[in-house]
Amino acid sequence: MASSSGSYKRMGAVMAGQLKANPERAARFNRLSEDKVWDVVVIGGGAAENDLLMQFQADLANVPVVRPVVTETTALGAAYLAGLGIGLWEDFSEIESLWRRERIFEPKMSQDRREYLTKQWHRAVARTRGWEQ
Fold it and tell me: Domain range spanning residue 33?
């Protein structure tokens, strides 16, 4: 276990880097599409519980990010399919009507800031290349 405040700061920096990696990937995919295919991103999973991460995702991708009430979407999807399989629901439209939005994170970051952070991210990634020979 870390015993100094410096160790905790380093650990925090590593965790921040991990959190920031996911939104950067989504933003990169969004930039790959000349037609900007995504008008909105719906997020699920444990990371969706993190408000800071969800806002950062919206800011970097420059699209609204929607968090559903139930974020454990894999388990929920399996349960929905099982219910559909035993006839609990007639079709997918009944299941779709059960979905609820908990919150929308709107992009707030300026284009200049988004470009700066993206550039810094790429610089950081470039510095990690080739460290192991």
Answer: 5-126
Q: Which pLDDT tens digits describe the chain residue by residue (133 residues)? A: 444 445 445 545 554 565 566 666 655 655 544 456 678 888 888 889 999 989 988 888 888 999 999 999 889 889 999 999 999 999 999 999 998 999 999 999 999 998 898 888 888 888 888 777 6
- Rounded to two decimals, the pTM is 0.68
Pairing verdict, β 101-105 and 65-68 = antiparallel
Q: How many domains, the chain?
A: 1
Residue 113 lies in a domain: yes
Would you say residue 132 lies in a domain?
no
